[in-house]
């Protein structure tokens, strides 16, 4: 449908440049940077035609080049935003060409906003968010995202679709890689850190981008772990586990929110006025705009809540979705619906106002163009590469280390480096590899070759393929940048690996998943190693040589057979551009493993969803009629909060300031942590609570409420102190009211969610 530009207001003349003068020779209010944003928004809104308004609410694909169709659409005022998805999004050239058309050749000169998925890096890729969450260092994430902002802004990107704060309890769901794990409190810290990293203190700065918290809401609870699938989340659980991370991002000033694909307890999230308006707008006072996920407005028809596109547009807009990503229901139906009165002008105006507000806040009206040379020196700078290495090392979680086989010392002179992921640099970047170039990525083998030094003799063989085509899912061709991944396992490969192992002191075995088996649409029904990798491991383990397993994965894997036989297991996730160097740093002891899991490792896929902060049953514990599995232990393989170090720590009993706390008081808790080993190491002291007589519903058996990372020298003891207010002890009821109940509480300060003895206190009425 072609937009008809009928002048709503004639004080504006055609733009000659981006600053326009009205008939009196003065700037229009909306063009005047000295005016407050709200005045500018309102001034502009009143000049806009209906078509121009509707145009602001449509996001389309960022074209590869400015052809006649894209230029015409823009000139007609049909486009409010572009979504970058291919290699064009690496220089600002096309963006600036489009921007020139919008600014100079349209009636009001409204700039589009250019969005692209910058999730864990742009040209420099950092570890996946799940990995960085395991560093228990939100500031680290703020730093990686600030560099991602700097690189992507230089490419002409104004807006990214991150953070993804979806709580995930089911590792079959591939997007667990993009979030922070299963704890809402930690998710709040990481979400806010990401917003700060992207938006900075002034989002209009040239090296900042607008953040978008997603996927609102409940997307991570996809049934069966199948992406896009239905979620059933009672309000009580929604308020306590799924909403807080979004609220935290709103409080941190996030300017946009993405509505999700899923149907939430029967109502699709992109047509859900309870979550989008009652909570987000009315309760939290969110002033930015909501963009739908990709075609999720059009998909309201597939959900069966809209009979046709017009219905879908009406439902979504009324519910609170301001901008429609890709599908065209707003563009094609809103004008008629406004004419018929089925959609009100007030609702439309409000959506446009929100979009314009963000564009003004980003400074797009005042600085619409991007420096066309800055990108040439913006990527892969030394500080970015160093940070990708540091972040990867800090994200590694040491799951097992029998007889201190790690770190590798010159005594383990001969190293057999085996496994399909040992020398596959392209897999290191994980599911949102953004603009990574294969030839700029470092494999583990490369990192080891570069830095191991002459004390070690490294021999390499692949052992087997990453997966066997035809037997398991053949990955999609994910990007022009990343070619497909090598040949299937050859007939002698495992045998060759075994003979190499036999002639070595230690095997470093790099195994895991292809990068696109996690991330969007990366659901798995099995959580083991793909292809012949388990077979390879078993054959190597049978040699009796110590096997150090380095796992690269976007999710926790169910690998009890590996736990039984491996000498060491280091979970390295997908570490990013130079991340393999950080992983090698940990293997060789140049860095210490200080990561702790933020996601439970199950023993078997049959245990999932599996998470530490569950409610108790009426029959807790082990034994008959307790609801345990008859065929496997009910406990996880590795619990939330778990991770070893190259030294050992002893946690004393937690101490409290009092065993009776008044409502006006606070809880002072402390613990003595001692480094009982002979290397320096970082302990993570994790504080959990449990409320034992909650009035609105059962409370989790443990809830994380604090943590501290403490570097301790050998033999050193330190008292680690925490302070909780009584507010910190609260939770939401099913209506979203914050409650703090009097009664009995337990408090742990421990090294993971499954250990330690609690202290008790009474919160007095
Ligand atoms: C769909 C994904 O769900 C979302 O996370 C992403 O931001 C959009 N596509 C845009 O690429």
List keywords for this structure.
6-stranded mixed β-sheet; binds 1-deoxynojirimycin; globular; alpha/beta; 19 helices; 765 residues; 5-stranded parallel β-sheet
* Helix proportion range: 25-40%
Strand order of the largest sheet: 11-16-15-14-12-13
Radius of gyration, in angstroms, nearest whole number: 27 Å
Say what oligomer this is: single chain
**If you average the pLDDT, what whole number results?**
94
Description:
This protein is an alpha/beta fold and 765 residues long. It is 26% helix and 17% strand. It contains 19 helices and 27 strands. A six-stranded mixed β-sheet has the order 11-16-15-14-12-13, sandwiched between helices. Helix 3 (68-75) links the parallel strand 1 (58-61) and strand 2 (81-84). Helix 1 crosses helix 13 (345-362) and helix 14 (382-395) crosses helix 19 (579-587). The longest helix has 18 residues, at 345-362. It is globular. The relative contact order is 0.10. Residues 1-20 and 471-483 have low confidence and may be disordered. Bound molecules: 1-deoxynojirimycin. The site of 1-deoxynojirimycin has 7 residues, from loops.
